Amino acid sequence: MIRIAVLGAGRIGRIHGRNAANHPDARLVAVADPHAPSAQELAAATGAEVASLETIVERSDVDAILICTPTTTHADLIERGARAGKAVFCEKPVDLSSPRIETCLGVVEKAGTPLMIGFNRRFDPNFASLRKRLADGEVGEVELVTILSRDPNPPPVSYVLTSGGLFRDMMIHDLDMARFLLLGDEPVEVHAVGSSLVDPAIGQAGDVDTAAVLLKTAKGRIVQISNSRRATYGYDQRIEVHGSKGMIRAGNVHRTTVEVANGSGVTADPVQDFFLQRYADAYKAEFDAFIEGIKTTRKFEPTGQDGLKAQRLADAATESAQTGKPVKL
Amino acid sequence: MIRIAVLGAGRIGRIHGRNAANHPDARLVAVADPHAPSAQELAAATGAEVASLETIVERSDVDAILICTPTTTHADLIERGARAGKAVFCEKPVDLSSPRIETCLGVVEKAGTPLMIGFNRRFDPNFASLRKRLADGEVGEVELVTILSRDPNPPPVSYVLTSGGLFRDMMIHDLDMARFLLLGDEPVEVHAVGSSLVDPAIGQAGDVDTAAVLLKTAKGRIVQISNSRRATYGYDQRIEVHGSKGMIRAGNVHRTTVEVANGSGVTADPVQDFFLQRYADAYKAEFDAFIEGIKTTRKFEPTGQDGLKAQRLADAATESAQTGKPVKL
Amino acid sequence: MIRIAVLGAGRIGRIHGRNAANHPDARLVAVADPHAPSAQELAAATGAEVASLETIVERSDVDAILICTPTTTHADLIERGARAGKAVFCEKPVDLSSPRIETCLGVVEKAGTPLMIGFNRRFDPNFASLRKRLADGEVGEVELVTILSRDPNPPPVSYVLTSGGLFRDMMIHDLDMARFLLLGDEPVEVHAVGSSLVDPAIGQAGDVDTAAVLLKTAKGRIVQISNSRRATYGYDQRIEVHGSKGMIRAGNVHRTTVEVANGSGVTADPVQDFFLQRYADAYKAEFDAFIEGIKTTRKFEPTGQDGLKAQRLADAATESAQTGKPVKL
Amino acid sequence: MIRIAVLGAGRIGRIHGRNAANHPDARLVAVADPHAPSAQELAAATGAEVASLETIVERSDVDAILICTPTTTHADLIERGARAGKAVFCEKPVDLSSPRIETCLGVVEKAGTPLMIGFNRRFDPNFASLRKRLADGEVGEVELVTILSRDPNPPPVSYVLTSGGLFRDMMIHDLDMARFLLLGDEPVEVHAVGSSLVDPAIGQAGDVDTAAVLLKTAKGRIVQISNSRRATYGYDQRIEVHGSKGMIRAGNVHRTTVEVANGSGVTADPVQDFFLQRYADAYKAEFDAFIEGIKTTRKFEPTGQDGLKAQRLADAATESAQTGKPVKL
């Protein structure tokens, strides 16, 4: 039994905490959150203890920690976990500053402890299947990658102000996905454009709500990503890869398979519109992979380096959108 | 150049007349219709002459006739055409009475002239492709055939009264399609039920507007057909065949490929709702097959026997729906 | 906490047992199975006790029993449960004999205890949504119901011999679904045909492996159901309802949303092919409804009467297929 | 009757020539092509005369000319047509040089004669319907436009060498489509990347075969276009527009509606793979619009200015891909 502590009992902490509690090879030992009722509720639901953030990382009865706290605390907690010899799972991003990520990864490397970063979409059964088939060569060499990602609703401006901006907060998932699908061929050139078309307040806060990037890799492969902070039709998450032998894509998940036909046309159900529902299976598979890594494989992907590289791409995109010039990596 | 005369310049006569006029190996020579303006209009549009129904069949400058007149005249015209040595294409049905069809086919057989019956759906590119793949064994042995057919709107009661009833007027197309898909294994048992759910006036006129049949073939294969005289979403024409190695189906044709996603779901365009549009390509391919038969193959399908067998199935279905008992063939 | 005992620890017993163990308002107390290792395994996984079938029903620490044993034992166990004052959930069918079901339901009625029958498909999110929209009038009056159901692989002949035949064993689900979708308008006329096309051994055992029924209701509505014991493409479960205002359908669930395009066409993933996977959510929702019934609503659907009526339709279909004549109800 | 002359009897000239010959308000008078057999074949098939390129434009019995000759001759022929007072339809592009286009448009403007440029995709029924719905506000304000376009097979290097490069030869269609969908909001910033991934010989010839552009408009809207010279699955032509009220897209046209399900999945037919088939209806509608312009509306779209603006975008994309820097317009 791998003994788990979860740091942060917000909505993502609750997901990971419950997955830990239900896992046959894991046991949720402790939960910490500055907001006591949240910690208590999750502890009660899972049979774990409530602990303080000050002491939970270093507990001797804990093998692994799940960092689900606000972004600003991630790097410090990762370093504490590594120094305490714990296996660490940390929600993305490691930090909004790439140099800070580098320092943090240095500490982890020195400690020689496991670190896995929570790019959950890699574990979505649809995207994971697509990626496996790419790796198996089903569509030949990857040539063009198209990733579309739209949120159902824009976040409040208060969130936007501390988010690091759309590229670091939202598109970082797609940038990681692009790297995941490129099978090792890294982007070397980043063109980005962004606009505030959805909510003028987001623009006034200095961020964009609609954006796209164009990436070119070392081998000349091309990636297009587009994001919007608002989609009236749900949480839109799609991937398409054009290869030398064919095209492969993974589409949205609809609420049901029901379709209605009448004079207006043939209407399929809206797509699932909440990320916790859309990616419920992904979160389970992600936690499974973390446990599997601890138990047997000692392979932890996405790695800290994956976190750093995605962050650097997000930095580059942010700079490109601001300067109007491409950024080379 | 095969010289063609078209009998009947209503909407189906116009279709065939224009296909004849545009065919590289055919020439539309003459058009007849008791309604003079209709004949004149089609003649003007195609460069053909207007002729009378009394004399058009026997003209020496005509090689083949297309019978697009009302059903009650079909058998007589076929016989006239056969006796005059013409190749005859006749819209379905040969007649509403199976015995009358038998007599008519006897005349044709004696004359040794070509006869082709207008079951246009066999020539629809989608259904024809499906049938070809069935014949090629792509899904193995046929086991279950499902045919759905719904008209956009019910006909007027005046039409219903002379139509021969839904099974002979509408379902006969599906019964022919079933035979087409069964590749020679004939239905031997017919169960039918019918109701008047769409328009009470149709029920009062002694007919049904919603119906289904269940057929069993000599080899135990099973066919299900359902019809409705009204579909709010267009002209619904679908086929599905379950075989020992897989399932094959042909769906509806939508007006465009456009889809719109919003909070109500993802809506594809309505299906095409007019049979002349839906089957425009089928009518062309049907005429091509008739000309090809005359020119080279001497093979004319659907044959007069196909017309007769579909009619017998429609008779059986009518009887079964009226008596509540299956009919053996 | 509602205290649950599960009778039968085979694959369906394990599903219900685990759902009970995971339910926030239920506790799995005891498990019984003549095959001791099965009972022990499920008990170990859920923290329940192993008990004997002889004593488990009458235990005072049990509020509700889940009957997941072989069909021949269902009616007796339901009666024991009712007499002991327990809420009873029983897998379909109550019994293969309709008279036996009637006797059993009499005992339950006298006891005044809850009974719910496990027609799991009513709880499938897709079908449940379709049914809700029907009930809400989204497509107007129901006119034609089409239900297709195919198993991935035929059962062994040993199973066929004690199954009661395809209509009672397999199609009973579709017959219940038809009743569910007809919103109270009961079938009064049953036409059935069946063949052995999949496995000759099934025919030699006196059963069919390919079958279809045609039902007519009191109000003239029409239902078509077709079954096959083998589908190369997975577990095929589809419903389509044609109504006065439109058409509604619920399709299959594919393994993923991935599609691959190449010279062969555009290929979607196969449909899910194992009923426990396809209906995992349905089983959960079904158990939720049972618990909700006990806790608050005192409404238990599908009822014992639903079980009886589906059985009578299956009996009628069996008779019709054997005699070649329709059966009136 | 509008009297038409067609210049160039290659495959696109034959399309337009036949559409002219079949149009109720037009008559094909003359055909010219340096390759005499091509001119003779088209003339024979349509009842037109063969004429010489030297004299065909200025004939007094010609009202309108269709320029379907090689690109290098377009601007001269347009000018001759304008000076002779003819209505001119010219295949894209007007010229590979934007300054030459400007001069040519000056001549046309001075002559005051009609000019229409052959961006056929605007007339595709699917794309035209999508655009109409955009203009009707069905998805609100346009925010993100995604255009995917892939050819089935790369052209020979000999063609590539004189084509002006992928951006001017192939992507110009998509650049015009982008402008068409942006409803007047012009792109002002062009980022392009290109690679030779399909055929190394194309790269050696100084061109790319895989490319993408990222456009930003004056109002901050974003457009993504991607092209490949090779798609194993057919001629891929798709558009998707994300708007403030929803998303609208137009997909590919498949050869038939047939789908086959088996253990490999559910396979739809390949998409149509020849542009003359895919856009047959578009070419008809395009010619109809030209004739309608002459007859009544005096509105000719796409205009010469549309041709020029698309060319400038293609120039900008070419420059951006070569320099690695965005180009402002």
Descriptive key words:
homotetramer; 329 residues; alpha/beta; Rossmann fold; Dihydrodipicolinate Reductase, domain 2; 15 strands; globular
Secondary-structure map:
The structure is a homotetramer of 329-residue chains.
Chain A: E1 2-7, H1 11-22, E2 26-32, H2 36-46, E3 49-51, E4 64-67, H3 71-83, E5 87-91, H4 98-111, E6 115-118, H5 125-135, E7 142-150, H6 157-162, H7 166-169, H8 171-181, E8 187-195, H9 200-204, E9 210-217, E10 222-228, E11 236-243, E12 246-250, E13 258-262, E14 265-268, H10 275-278, H11 280-297, H12 304-323, E15 327-328
Parallel strand pairs in A: 1-2, 1-4, 2-3, 4-5, 5-6, 7-10
Antiparallel strand pairs in A: 7-11, 8-9, 8-15, 9-10, 11-12, 13-14
Helix pairs in contact in A: 1-11, 3-4, 4-12, 8-12
Structure description:
The structure is a homotetramer of 329-residue chains. Chain A is α/β, with parallel strands linked by helices. The first copy, chain A, has 2 domains: 2-113, NAD(P)-binding Rossmann-like Domain (Rossmann fold, 3-Layer(aba) Sandwich); 122-274 and 309-328, Dihydrodipicolinate Reductase, domain 2 (2-Layer Sandwich), CATH 3.30.360. In chain A, 39% of the residues lie in helices and 26% in strands. Chain A has 12 helices and 15 strands. Chain A has helices at residues 11-22, 36-46, 71-83, 98-111, 125-135, 157-162, 166-169, 171-181, 200-204, 275-278, 280-297, 304-323, and strands spanning 2-7, 26-32, 49-51, 64-67, 87-91, 115-118, 142-150, 187-195, 210-217, 222-228, 236-243, 246-250, 258-262, 265-268, 327-328. Chain A has a 7-stranded mixed sheet with strand order 12-11-7-10-9-8-15. In chain A, strands 3-2-1-4-5-6 form a 6-stranded parallel sheet, with helices on both faces. In chain A, strand 2, helix 2 and strand 3 form a beta-alpha-beta unit. In chain A, helix 3 (71-83) packs parallel to helix 4 and helix 8 (171-181) packs across helix 12. The first copy, chain A, starts with a strand and ends with a strand. Chains A and C meet through helix 5, strand 12 and strand 13 of A and helix 5, strand 12 and strand 13 of C.
